[in-house]
Queue: 2 jobs
Job 1
Amino acid sequence: MTDIVIDEIVVPRTLEPRPVADRDADPGPDDRADHADRVAAYVEAIALENAVQAAVLGFGDLDFSPAEQLPQWHDPFTPRRLFVVRAEGRIVGQATYETLSDPAVTTCWLWVAVDPEHRRRGLGTALLDHVEAVARAAGRTDVISFVASGQGVASGQDATSGSDATSGSWPAEGPGPATAPADRLEASTGHGWVPRASSEVRFALSRGYALGQVERISRLPLPVDEEALAAIRSEALAAAGNEYRVHTWSGPTPRRWQSDVAAMATALSTDAPMGDVPEPEDVWTVERLVEAERRRATSGRASLTAAAEHVPTGRLVACSDLAVPDDASRPVMQQMTLVRREHRGHRLGWLVKVANLDRLAVEKPGRPAVLTFNAEENRPMLAVNEAVGFVPIGVEGVWHRLL
Ligand SMILES: CC(C)(COP(=O)(O)OP(=O)(O)OC[C@H]1O[C@@H](n2cnc3c(N)ncnc32)[C@H](O)[C@@H]1OP(=O)(O)O)[C@@H](O)C(=O)NCCC(=O)NCCS
């Protein structure tokens, strides 16, 4: 393909039809027809992203629908841009560019997806060239890309995957041939691998990206085994003792905890294991938290949070939250789990996770599963998840390149 045309999509603020009154109050290029076109293009681009990711992994559980993603596209702290390539009027390739609003930041996050029927024609290269040029123009020279890789049943990762033979069998069963050690590309951390022969790995390597880390994607079938949970709950309560008290809530953070939660969100950006991929500090203020929660309230996913208060100081020092879809047939996504450094070693991670699963069962029962991502080297977190019943279902490579 020689003439590849890349268009930018202006992401609409709402997916609802634009009311006539609104149009009349604001005449100009953004009339109703434009709005409808933008909604259609945005929805089509996100549908492609979800379909491509589901095809790679062999399941669609990680999908965030266009409506669920919309608030993130309008987060003033994490500006994003969306580009597409069309063939015969249909979107067949898309690329996203995301960064932090702080002009001093040099990091950005890029992602490219091409319809399987249009691959090996240079579309991926053209899209990545484009978003890399956008990044360079904005002074973002440190690129990170999170790329799911098919594993398990689909491409046959075997039970000795990762570096930790104690992490259980993975995949459980499956027809795919085991991936021979020579066909695995190990992360530079020494923990976890991705299949060398896959399109996304070949593409990333051909573009000069290095595999800095591998994250494990795990699934917890619901309802949780009550016996397993009870054992973890009582061990966590015993380890935490009287110094810590659990609080849970759904929806926006209660006012009294806002500054503690904002501080934990900031800490999370640099505290989680990052392998060889340096992530910049992402500062959360109370204003940002309130604004993000206001936007999230319209997304079709409710937040469920459990946090631990350090009673002597009255501060929250551990927190875990879940994004629960309104549609009960879809899985729940684990979001942040963090224990402040000074309070580690008291099983607080277990305490808040179990409290949140308990709360989920009561408040939003009937979802099929919880999904979570963890760095392969994050043994303490993987240990908690495995004890609760999470099973590995795939991996995500964290790729890095300096432009
Ligand atoms: C990775 C992806 C974007 C590549 O899209 P594409 O349009 O096929 O890419 P290109 O045609 O520009 O390929 C560029 C180079 O990547 C490498 N490559 C891509 N797919 C390959 C494959 N299946 N086998 C071997 N090499 C491959 C080759 O070096 C290729 O150059 P060549 O065709 O001249 O040999 C596409 O496979 C995809 O959407 N994968 C799933 C989503 C994903 O993983 N995205 C993350 C990437 S940031």
Job 2
Amino acid sequence: MKKITDFSRSREFSRAINDVIPGGAHTYSKGDDQFPVNAPAAITHGKGARVWDLDGNEYIDCSMGLTSVSIGHGYEPVAKAVADAAYQGTNFQRPAALELEAARKFLDTVQSGDMVKFAKNGSTVTTAAVKLARAYTGRNRVAIAKEHPFFSYDDWFIAATACDTGIPVQAKTLTAGFSYDNLSSVEELFSDKNHDIACLIMEPVKFSPPKEGFLEGVRELCSEHGVVFILDEMISGFKWALGGAQQYLDIKPDLATWGKGIANGFSACALTGRAEIMELGGIRRTGADKVFLISTTHGAETTGLAAMVATIDAFKTHGMIESNWQRGEKLRQRLDQIIVKHQLESSLTVTGYPCLLAVICRNASGQVDDTFRTLLMQEMIARGVLFQGLLYPTWSHQRAELDHIERAFDESCAVYRKAIDANSCSNLLVGPPAKPVFRKKI
Ligand SMILES: Cc1ncc(COP(=O)(O)O)c(C=O)c1O
């Protein structure tokens, strides 16, 4: 395959953007330290599953805007709905009429809870879920699944990470950890009479299926101990099923949070839940304490809600969930064959569900290794595949795009093989390896 070698404008851009935007991006996972040196620093535009960088290089996109672009870049029915909404006005002094239609449609689609509150960011809705749970239970602490990397950029979650600078030390005491797939770790937390835990939050599933009985066990323990059970469907919503992984795995939370793919990359997120809890954020219980749930100027901007409605329509009309699963399954089979062809079974593993795959990279000793992962990224990028470890098959990843990914993976595996044989990436990787997002020191 023809290799991409020109990143000159990207290099200039990296220098310039870090002078004016701390971190050089608006989520840390898009920053320079998450990519090899030979990578596009910025994207000028995208269409379907393809994006273009500042130097005019074209790529197949594997992560689609942190998996938020669930159909494709610039997908016309959604873009048109957004443009129409923009021309009709985006924000009014009273709710937009669209808010009721959007709320009914979303609740009917995800079948999770009786009420919904919209917002622009995932962190806003997870934090709102925590606030509601605290108001409902009168307790303060939050139990989080330790293995799940991100729930919110707010203090209640960031206090529990290595990046706790700038957060009051007291915040740390308000978060407790349990282990996903380990029911005893939840039992242990709740067995303390003074646990003060208002809610338990986790993603329903990551890359491996939950152990039998784990989710049901957590559900029961939460009910038994009066703890609000929150499922964060930010990633899994509109991937495992339209109703998220909770629908796929048949598990009912008290509250659920949604974002990313629900509006094909536009900014629309949602908190759903049982009326008994959600209504605490309402204004109909005259005389009761008011819970200041989500109250933001841009939360229900018509463009985001119009994008969400059009995204739901497109998913339903074209059966996108089923087709994404089929594409993902075929892709996984092909990548597995390529791994076998290069005898890399102990170094590269394609994991996950077909609707969201990930490649785990190990070194010659079998340890998960960021340097080897960066080498694979570098080689895929050089062959026109913008890859960061995830493979998210969407409606826009048609045969041509999947073929391209497979060919790039085949050639990249040949380079990876050399690194494994040499037990080092040093003559192959240009620049430093990508670093973890959550680390104490820069
Ligand atoms: C599982 C999960 N929850 C919450 C969030 C926060 O969403 P946002 O970045 O929109 O604030 C993310 C974002 O990556 C996420 O992956």
